[in-house]
Amino acid sequence: MSLPLKVRRLGRQPYAATWEAMSDFTNNRGPDTPDELWLLEHDPVFTQGQAGKAEHVLAPGDIPVVQVDRGGQVTYHGPGQIVGYPLIDLRRAGVSVRELVNKLEQSIIDTLAHWNIGAERLEGAPGVYVAGAKVAALGLRVRRGCSFHGLAFNVSMDLEPYHRINPCGYKGLAVTQVLDLGGPSRLADVEDALVEEFCRQFGFDAEQAAPILPELPARAAV
C-alpha cells in the first residue's frame, strides 16, 4: 500500500525562514505525521554544510553565506533552481540513509530521462551529473530518524554565482542546468516529472497540500 505524501509547491521563499520551518517540522512531528515534499525556489544564497571549509567560498560578493546543519560543503541556491526538501520518516518508509541518497539521485536521473537527457552518479561525489557537469546537488540531515534539507536541481538559472565557490568543495567543477541540456525552462514542468519519479522511487501517493509553510504544535519535552 502506498504511503501518503503531501506535496507543497511553495514558490520563491527566503532561505532562513524555510530552514527554520523544516527544522521545526522535523522536531515536532509525531509517528503519525504524514511525510511531505516541499518544492520551492530560494532567493540567492550560498549555504555551507557542516563539513564545509571556508576556502571553498572564493568571492561571494553580495550573496550571503549561511552556515547550515546539513551534510556536505558549499552550494548555491537561486531563482530558476528547484529546491526539494523531502521530510520523510525513514523508519516508516523502510529506507536507510544510503537508500535515501540513492533514491533521490535516481528520481532526478529518471526525471531528466523524460527529455532524453542521460545522467549519472559519480562515485564518492553525491549528486547527479551529465557528461561530468553537475546538474543537481544533495545535502541532507537526519534527526530522530526523519530527513530534512534535500536537493537542489538546476533548471533555468544564472549559473555565474557558481564561479564564486568551489561547488560542493570541488575546485573547477563544471555545473550545468536542464535548459542548457535541451530540456524545458519552466520549473513547473520539471517539478511535475520530479514528483512522479520521487513517488515511484519511495512508493508514495502524492496529494497537493496548501502552498504555505506548515506549522505543527510543539512536542512536549520527554
From TrEMBL:
Pathway annotation from the record: Protein modification; protein lipoylation via endogenous pathway; protein N(6)-(lipoyl)lysine from octanoyl-[acyl-carrier-protein]: step 1/2
Keywords, sorted A to Z: Acyltransferase, Cytoplasm, Transferase
CDD domains: LipB (cd16444)
Annotated residues for binding of substrate: R70, G71, G72, Q73, V74, T75, Y76, H77, A137, L138, G139, G150, L151, A152
EC number: 2.3.1.181
Gene3D superfamilies recorded: Bira Bifunctional Protein, Domain 2 (3.30.930.10)
Site residues, Lowers pKa of active site Cys: K134
InterPro entries: aa-tRNA-synth_II/BPL/LPL, BPL_LPL_catalytic, Octanoyltransferase, Octanoyltransferase_CS
Record-annotated membrane-spanning stretches: none
Subcellular location as annotated: Cytoplasm
Extra remark: In the reaction, the free carboxyl group of octanoic acid is attached via an amide linkage to the epsilon-amino group of a specific lysine residue of lipoyl domains of lipoate-dependent enzymes.
Family affiliation: Belongs to the LipB family.
Protein name per UniProt: Octanoyltransferase
UniProt gene name: lipB
